[in-house]
């Protein structure tokens, strides 16, 4: 096993692409080190990306935000600008793990770990976030929902690294929210979760919407029919009822010790409804 | 496996060590440097017994590689007292009997120190939330929370 800490993205990509054995990217390590400890992975090469210039920064650009792959979730919670523009994304990121884990874990790691129950992913999908990927073939940008392809699996090719997550600049009357159900009050993995992102017009009518559900399918679901249930309406009772029904119907959950299929379906509707209500209130305040 | 040469700062002292690429900072602290205050409870970041402060961030040292400490600042429980003078948190943990077996105690003290550094006047809820990454199977937490509240008031007055 080798540990390297490259100073540039090009070097990191080159080392990963040229590695003959298995290679792992290390940012916060809150998934990787647990998997190494459990004997589930034994990488030949560990590429620590934290020393790469700019990767540990949240940048505000004309287009919006660029959240580097080495930015801890704790740092996201300390960014007033990010919290103001994307409160749902930040509240999802802040739900991951304990304070100790918050100081290390990253949303790029959460995305690439590809757990169906990842907390930040439904919020990012609802937000329309994109992943900036650097690899041997150059740079490409994809929607975050295109990264996980199934539990523990991603669409990233050998040598590719997600450099940053990109979030658009917010227009007026926009708001997002994320909610999850866990049987405890904190420090647990989502049994069901929902992220909702809304933009309203001057009259409070929903102009655009994105609704994502977590832990109810092999990957996070972007439920377009749920967005359609909200668009053109003022989030009246009928719209919320329709949203809940569509979300429950879109679920393809498993039965396990944390929740039954029936329970997950029902709660998906309830959480989508509540997250939509919060997102709507946040959008109305801006 | 080739060793990784690391130069870091631990409790204000410059420290150099060689470690294996897959060796955790917790194992380096305990087995190579003799700093056995941080404990291994779970080894997977769930219990907080190995808590340390790395560049002003509270982290589980079991989820950090020894190699990652290069050029960084590490604070452990061994740096908390000044000689024979206990940190107010340590003193209050004793006075409130906020420990029994003691395995979780270094982690709680480090986590509480980090909490009070960022929030000198926390509510009970903030203390409980801030220490939720640390598990204690003896005290039922109430005595720990009271010790932290008491230490906070002493430290504010100081």
TrEMBL record, chain B:
EC number: 1.17.1.4
Top EC class of this enzyme: oxidoreductase
Keywords, ordered alphabetically: 2Fe-2S, Iron, Iron-sulfur, Metal-binding, Oxidoreductase
Molecular functions (GO terms): xanthine dehydrogenase activity
Domain 2Fe-2S ferredoxin-type, residue spans: 4-80
Entry keyword annotation includes Oxidoreductase: yes
Entry-linked InterPro entries: 2Fe-2S-bd, 2Fe-2S-bd_dom_sf, 2Fe-2S_ferredoxin-like_sf, 2Fe-2S_ferredoxin-type, 2Fe2S_fd_BS, Beta-grasp_dom_sf, Diverse_Oxidoreductases
The keyword Oxidoreductase is assigned to this record: yes
The protein, known as: Xanthine dehydrogenase iron-sulfur-binding subunit XdhC
């Amino acid at each position: 096993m080798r540990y390297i800490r490259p100073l540039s993205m090009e070097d990191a990509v080159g080392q990963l692409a040229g590695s003959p054995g298995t290679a792992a990217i290390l940012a916060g390590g809150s998934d990787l080190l647990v998997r190494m400890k459990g004997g589930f992975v034994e990488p030949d090469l560990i590429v620590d990306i934290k020393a790469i210039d700019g990767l540990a920064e949240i940048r505000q650009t004309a287009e919006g935000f660029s959240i580097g792959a080495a930015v801890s979730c704790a740092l996201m919670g300390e960014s007033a600008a990010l919290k103001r523009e994307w409160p749902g994304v930040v509240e999802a990121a802040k739900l991951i793990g304990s304070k100790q884990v918050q100081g290390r874990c990253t949303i790029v790691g959460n995305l690439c770990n590809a757990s169906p129950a990842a907390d930040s992913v439904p919020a990012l999908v609802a937000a329309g976030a994109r992943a900036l990927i650097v690899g041997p073939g150059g740079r490409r940008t994809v929607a975050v929902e295109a990264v996980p392809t199934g539990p523990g699996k991603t669409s990233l090719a050998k040598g590719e690294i997600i450099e940053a997550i990109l979030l658009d600049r917010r227009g007026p009357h926009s708001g997002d929210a994320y909610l999850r159900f866990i049987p405890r009050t904190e420090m647990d993995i989502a049994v069901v979760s929902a992220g909702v992102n809304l933009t309203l017009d001057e009259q409070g009518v929903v102009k655009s919407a994105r609704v994502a559900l977590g832990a109810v399918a092999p990957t996070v679901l972007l439920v377009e029919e749920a967005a359609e249930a909200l668009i053109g309406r003022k989030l009246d009772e009928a719209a919320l009822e329709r949203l809940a029904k569509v979300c429950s119907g879109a679920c393809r959950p498993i039965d396990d010790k944390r929740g039954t299929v029936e329970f997950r379906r029902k709660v998906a509707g309830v959480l989508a409804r509540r997250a939509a209500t919060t997102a709507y209130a946040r959008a109305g305040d801006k | 496996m080739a060793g990784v040469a690391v130069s870091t700062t631990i409790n204000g002292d410059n420290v150099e060590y060689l470690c294996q690429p897959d060796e955790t900072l917790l194992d380096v602290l305990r087995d190579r440097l003799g700093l056995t205050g941080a404990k291994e409870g779970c080894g997977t970041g769930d219990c907080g017994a190995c808590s340390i402060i790395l560049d002003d961030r509270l982290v589980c040292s079991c989820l950090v590689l020894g190699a990652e400490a290069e050029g960084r600042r590490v604070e452990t429980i061994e740096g908390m007292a000044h000689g024979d003078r206990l940190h107010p948190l340590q003193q209050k943990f004793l006075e409130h009997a906020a420990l029994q077996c003691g395995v979780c105690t270094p982690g709680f003290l480090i986590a509480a120190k980090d909490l009070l550094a960022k929030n000198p006047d926390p509510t009970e809820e903030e203390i409980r939330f801030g220490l939720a990454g640390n598990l204690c199977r003896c005290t039922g937490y109430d005595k720990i929370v009271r010790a932290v509240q008491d230490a906070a008031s002493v430290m504010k007055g100081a």
